[in-house]
Every structure is written in structure tokens, then in C-alpha cells.
Amino acid sequence: MQKNQRVADMAVEVLARRVGARVRRTGELFEAALKAVLETEASRQLAELRDGPHGDERAERWQED
Asked: Is the CB of residue 8 less than 8 Å from the CB of residue 39?
């Protein structure tokens, strides 16, 4: 995470890491791994955070809280 990173960018970064880890762990194709990751509750919450009203806020503010 970078100091001036937006919340939406942080959420995308976390989702991408989760997909990459699944691809390495299972050998699945990217598309299948992405679909599986996006079906988890944690990923749904990250997607809501990314797309929600706070997505454009700076992540550093969230870390302070």
C-alpha cells in the first residue's frame, strides 16, 4: 500500500493479489481464479468498498482510523 493510494486502488490491488495467489496455488486459469475469488464474502466486501462512496478517499486516512 502506498501513502497516497485511493481506497479503490487499494481494494483492486488486494483483489489482484488474491487472484494471483490462487492461480499459483491451484494452477487455474486467470478467469476461473478471478471468478472464484470474486465469489467470496471478503472479495464482495472489497468490491463494495472499491465501488462505494469512500472509493475515492485516500487510504492513509483509513489507516489512521
From this structure: no
d(CA 43, CA 17) in angstroms, rounded, equals: 11
Contact between 7 and 65 under an 8 Å Cβ cutoff? The reply is: no
Four-CA torsion 5, 6, 7, 13, nearest 10 degrees:
-60
Distance CA 20, CA 7 (A): 20
Segment 16-51, tens digit of pLDDT: 999 999 999 999 999 999 999 999 999 999 888 888
Rounded-to-integer distance, Cα 19 and Cα 25, Å: 10
pTM score of the predicted model:
0.74
- From the list 64, 14, 6, the residue with the least C-alpha distance to 37 is 14
Closest by CA position to 8, among listed 40, 21, 62, 41: 62
